[in-house]
Description:
Largest interface: A-B, 62 and 62 residues
Strand content of chain A: 5-15%
Oligomer: homodimer
Shape of chain A: elongated
Largest sheet of chain A: 2 strands, antiparallel
Number of strands of chain A: 2
Low-confidence stretches of chain A: none
Radius of gyration of chain A: 22 Å
Strand order of the largest sheet of chain A: 1-2
Amino acid sequence: VARSSTTRYAVLGVLSIGPMSGYEIRKLVSESIGHFWGESYGQIYPTLRRLSEEGLAVVEREEGGKKVYAVTEAGLGELRAWAEGPLEERPLRNELLLRLFFGRHVPKRRLIGLVEEARERQVRALRWYREAEDAPSEDREHPDFPYWTTTLRFGLVMGEAFVRWCDETLQELRALERAEAGEG
Amino acid sequence: VARSSTTRYAVLGVLSIGPMSGYEIRKLVSESIGHFWGESYGQIYPTLRRLSEEGLAVVEREEGGKKVYAVTEAGLGELRAWAEGPLEERPLRNELLLRLFFGRHVPKRRLIGLVEEARERQVRALRWYREAEDAPSEDREHPDFPYWTTTLRFGLVMGEAFVRWCDETLQELRALERAEAGEG
DNA sequence: AAGCCCATGTAAGCAGTTACATGATTGA
DNA sequence: TCAATCATGTAACTGCTTACATGGGCTT
Lengths: 184, 184
């Protein structure tokens, strides 16, 4: 049974920006929506084949072992139907929080290390978002631009909140660590 | 190949709070860490069987068709080893952002509706967190309490940030909608 | 007697990751 | 010539969800 794949819509969506090969789709995904979406080749290539079988995409041209796909009108219709449909909640899983929740069994030093690590990763991501915010002016003309900024702003707002949470959590963990040292 | 299951650690972790049946594990998960973790019966029961086969958990007692499991010393060791190990990034997928990113193909009214819906859901969650914050005093004595508060604070901080992002995004979408109406 | 929650478990089946296989092209 | 990047694809395997099957006990 299981849920239906969202990969097909991600691929259709990327093709709606412009004709592209599987390799370029993967690249665009990881470079521009990588902070909230991921796709692997093992999903992209079979999906492209299926989409073209269903008439939702076509091989626009082949150049030197490279197949450039384009979305069809039917494909755009499919994309639209999905995007307008009801938004169902997917189960979320945050492994860092799971570890913290059962943190009593873990040395506090290690917990602190884990949170610090996650914080650093997020700070790096924030730097990336801020660079992306100063996008070249050509991109600002793109019809998708206003939508891209909303997802970028998501990264900024949530990322900053995450760093704040990390700082608060680190304070608490260090306090717990000191309390323990004081006892022992 | 694929990644190793984190379900086993979630189950071991819950059992580290106290002996419990599969049904109770499911209930505790959905009631106390449901905002960042989910488990289904289809995962829990087979996992419990495997854990007891591996000696990481045991059936402490059976009462009227109910099997109460308890974590063993070996199980606690396994939990600790996992929690101290390196934190690998799992691919995240946010379907709302995906829809927004390709939002050009969707009526703005509908996009606004989607964000409003997500906002309401989050506001409800925030209410729940705030109620949980005023926990009964018995819980405050629990040795796990300081750790539980960190995950609860995560829900609060990130939830509030999310609502802020929703409000900003709604403003932008409404501006786009007005601009469109002005043109047409 | 109906409905709800407690309670355990299995089967089907898709989604998605990782690793592997293979080769062309480009540039230092 | 060596390495990196471009490029497509398949095979194996796991995780996880959903739906189904089954039944006890409590309350109204």
